[in-house]
User: Fold this.
Amino acid sequence: MDVPLSLTELYALLLESYGKQGWWPVLSRSNEPGFDSRGYHPGIIKVSLDDSDRWEIAVGAILTQNTAWTNVEKALYGLSEGSLETPRAVLAASAETVALAIRPSGYYNQKALRLKSFVQFYQSLKGRVPTRDELLSLSGIGPETADSMLLYAWQRPFFVIDTYTIRILKRLGYTNDCFFQKQPSKRYEDVQLYITSKLNSPQKHMQYQEFHALLVRHAKEHCGAKARCETCPLEARCRKML
DNA sequence: AACCAGGACGTGA
DNA sequence: TCACGTCATGGT
Assistant:
């Protein structure tokens, strides 16, 4: 283990270990076969997203800020229960009503305001794809949330950098690469450029979607705050930094 | 019973 | 610019 994994090796190894993740997880609005009793279908790739899928992904991206996805799932069902699943329903509802519905996702007062703010922008798009700067100008939408929306809701090639990504790369031994020396404020774009410059799939957004989903899967399974290295598929190639 | 989870933003130094 | 506090629920 003298040389750290290249990013393409890492991607291949994760894919081989965990299989395709098929993000973003979306709630089903139909009774199609293959969905569980709650209408949830993790791991099934929808080739073409409709408008309600896009909206749900964008909402999920806001709700999942520093929050476990299981709680986001509950909040999404809360919105559905409260008939707040459409943009115009969220627009019409009070912030208090929205907050109540999304309560399980935490930070519910902040997030309710962020959703109320975002829905106006979303409707103003009228189907157009937003730019990254437009998303960043909205209150409560930072680089990760913006990139999550662009990558998963709008299928655009923006790699998502989250705490999992940083932690995994750090532990694998990428610490010596330039981007970790930078200030935290400018680190996001540096890490993003580092990663995307080394990936070369012709279908960029698909590779970015899958890679990021695999990193999340790997972090949840083996590389959490408390690492479980015993059964880790990357154990032999990991420097276990920090 | 602390700690963690797919962040973003305001504040004071 | 940086370091830190705030926002909050639910699972382990």
